[in-house]
Design goal:
Elements: H1 3-6, H2 13-20, H3 24-32, H4 39-52, H5 58-63, E1 70-75, H6 81-96, E2 100-105, H7 110-122, E3 127-131, H8 136-142, H9 158-161
Parallel strand pairs: 1-2, 1-3
Helix pairs in contact: 2-3, 2-4
Length: 164
């Protein structure tokens, strides 16, 4: 049953370039939205992507130094209604910016928080939102990420939006 799926060739950026009769660099520029590419060429590349069923490998782009487009969220308890509302708002805000939310649950102990923090950093997230413990600032100082950001979920309660 699965043997057939294993033989299907993965469509690459090179395949898209050949199908659209452009260079790999042109496809890359179209995918990243950079460079000055004619609208006709952009349309050809998008048509090739659609026809071939190409799916961009974000991990490969991240290895080349590009942003991952992933923001990590560490929660103490995923079942808590406060965290559910916060996660929904954060997810909506990130999706509107073309980003993805990577959710982890730390539990109530410091070891779980450290595990989640390290996991997110090793997965190359572009930023972290810590909503897991009062000791979050201490952990940030101990495990300083190379890139950091702050996000505010518009659907979160007003008290949370003041958090910095």
């Amino acid at each position: 049953m699965f043997a057939e799926a294993d033989t299907i060739k993965k469509i690459t950026i090179t395949d898209v370039a050949q199908h659209a009769a452009v260079s790999v660099s042109t496809v890359s520029l179209v995918l990243s939205g950079k460079g000055r590419i004619s609208s006709a060429t952009v349309a050809r590349v998008h048509q090739a992507i659609e026809q071939l069923g190409y799916v961009r490998n974000r991990q490969a782009a991240t290895l080349r130094g590009a942003a991952s487009g992933v923001i990590g969220l560490i929660l103490r308890d995923i079942g808590d209604p406060f965290y559910a509302e916060m996660t929904a708002g954060l997810s909506e805000a990130l999706e509107a910016q073309g980003k993805v939310l990577f959710l982890t649950q730390s539990g109530r102990d410091g070891a779980g928080l450290m595990r989640c923090f390290d996991t997110l950093l090793t997965h190359g997230v572009d930023g972290l939102v810590l909503a897991a413990a009062r000791s979050s600032p201490t952990i940030c100082r101990r495990r300083r990420p190379s890139r950091a950001c702050r996000w505010c979920a518009p659907r979160a309660p007003a008290a949370w939006r003041r958090w910095t």
